[in-house]
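User: Can you help me understand a structure? I only have the sequence.
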Amino acid sequence: MVHMEREEKRYLLLLVVIAVIINGVTVAPLVPWQNWLFWSKPTAAVMFKISICNYQFTLPSDGIKAKVGEPVKFVAASCDVTYGFGVFHRSGRMIFQMQVLPNYHNEIIWIFDEPGLYTIRSTEYSGPEHSSMVLPDAIVVVA
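Assistant: Let's start by predicting it. Here is the structure, written out as tokens:
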């Protein structure tokens, strides 16, 4: 059995209190950098289904077009291995990503906050063809 000194107990309590405060502040609705709350359930204005099979993304036939400020639902499915579905700004900054598990409808709702063209790429190493899984300017977001 480990015996803790009084100072060690105080230090441990202080660390726990700090962790709880930081965690509470970062999920609080008063934090200015949160555009919408992760615990809210926005209703998607539009939904796009993406399939991924044999290192190829298959997008809707009429493309992906969204509006700034409008909740968009992406539903991605893989037929073979785990892939990543990452959306990137033209600057190279990742906007969001999710893992796409085989034989499962993986969903995410996102609200774009600026117009532009966005690139889709796999963010999960899935094998030797992984590096070719890039679709530049695949998502068009308008004001």
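Now, to help you interpret it: Strands lie at 46-53, 56-58, 64-67, 71-78, 83-88, 94-100, 106-111, 116-121, 134-142. The radius of gyration is 20 Å. Let me know which part you'd like to focus on.
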